[in-house]
Amino acid sequence: MTTVLKAAVIGTGVISKEHLSFLAASPHARLVGVCDLSRAAARYAAQRYGADAPYTDFNQMLAEAQPDVVHILTPPQSHKFIATACLKAGAHVICEKPIASHYQDFQELWAIAQECDRALIEDQNYRFNEPILAIHDLVTQGKLGHIEEIEVRMSLGLRGGGRFADENLPSPIHQMPAGVIHDLITHLVYLALPYLPSFDYIRATWNNHGGGDLFKYDDLDALVIGDNVHARFRFSCTTMPEGFHFRVRGTEGYAETDLFQPYIRAVYPRGGKQLSPLVNHWCNGLDLMKASVRNFRRKIMQRTPYEGLKILLDRTYTALINGTPLPISYDDMERTSRLIDALVAEDNQR
Amino acid sequence: MKLLITGASGFVGKYVVAEGLRRGHDVKAVVRPQTDVTRIPWHDCDRLELVRIDLRQQAELTAALVGVDAVIHLAAVKSGDFYDQFAGTVMATESLLAAMAEAKVSRLVAISTFSVYEYQQKRAHSLLDENSPLVTKERVINRDEYSQTKLIQEELYREFGTEHNGKVTILRPGMIYGREYLWHALLGAEFGSVLLRIGTRGTLPLSYVENCAEAMIITAESEGAIGETINIVDDNLPTQGQYTKELMKRAESPKLYYCPWVVMKSIAGFGWWINQTFLEGKAKMPGIVVPAKLHGRFKPLRYTNKHAKTVLNWQPKYTFEESLDRSCGDQELLKA
Known about the structure:
The structure holds two protein chains of two kinds. By secondary structure, chain A is α/β, with parallel strands linked by helices.
């Protein structure tokens, strides 16, 4: 018989669609509650995704629905407060990124999770997207040699409209230490960390190129070096089209992708020294053609770049049921949180 | 009366504020904090007070409602994804109603839309009036975000009536047109500078913006309208063809192409069948080839304003031709 965990969701913003659609379809979860400060929002989400009940008070939901797992999808500043209550109520916590506003908060939250003997997971969804997993396979198979460079680059036109550009009701994300980039930098950092052994040298240049008071920063250019591995992190609001590029370079070759328009370009020795450039061109050309068809189909079928989230959640629920290791470890979260703090720290800003 | 009007700087809101002032009311015009109103002729009128808040800021809203006799709630978000529209339409309304309950303001003229009606299951050329069925929760998922959020908004209005003894009138205007919006969505589908006209013989459920604005103010003044749901359309409604012909006499036209309603309906039906049969219904199609959305815009139906005239004792002031003349002329229409 399939074990089913009682799941609850707090926060019904944009990302809730991905969590709730997973929970509505998963054989491992039963959605016992959806909570939001807006009664209309909680009610809509509960009805749309088949939750047992809507709530506007998460403490009431924890007491009445007694969920085994709570998904926290609220603004980052509220994560620690809400997650603490959930853990103390005996629920495992899956928390949207960034799990905490500061490294210290993460450590305190982790200590509470340990005390309560509950799991605490940060959503590091893009790690489970197909191209990232494929590139990771190339690295672990040694096809790219020893990894020496990583570049993660995100371009998002946040100033062109939408939630973050609304001056009439500024998003709470603007109050984060790195402003809106703080909401996205977790993705950049956790993708690089598997290949970055340590942080010996950190330099981050934060800019507000667009000016004005709403955005604290709209541009980041950062370099981190550890054990001779260079990692570059770029965030831009102006370079278009929008993209989320990830590239690793090793002593033998390199591989790259764009997670918003997924493809893989991998160049490494294949077909012998003389033929390798030709074979790489042919293979990559073919892969690009296949990707264009696949991406057209993805667009029609409304597949989003959140495919990795469904895999992460599925693996998390399976691990919780079987008592096996969780897909995101303490080290994954600790190093991510620590490096973000370091990038934001004034000492490392130039 | 002291009226609080939300969405005051929007296309319809500007006219409603002007009409409210013309009829001698004091008006609190709610606009978002960064809105520039200096170009609107009524912005410096003595009986006008600008209230610069986002409707989701409930505390400020409660303070603004002190002394208000009636609220005309127009504000809604028509663009962006579902979550943008939900926040700007549903959550903003939720906040407004909570503030009204706190400030003990019970009179609400709630502006809804024809988009809440069920169209696909309605027979062509049948009458659409206040008794026509609304789209059900099961079927609304096939409609656009605007229909979905406006339907939830209407639920909130009804709750306000029952839970807080709210004196609510729900007005459902048809397609509101005017100087700022003449080539509207019921004529066809826009592709850049090209308009693909869909059908010519269907009657348009039109409401000229000045006629509509007057109906909204009369509703706020009318005790008899409390508890009513009222459709607002003009008299002698033109067909799509008549509207386009008259408009082209007065205004520049986009490049027009034409597709008969039955052809478009068949294309959409075929697209729907393909989606359901081969793609598990998961494919995202353009709105005009989704039957539920297509029928909502172009299905030929009949309309009436009998209930509005009876309850409100209202008569649309301008005929269709006069409305187009005013829309295409250079007369100032927003003077208080």
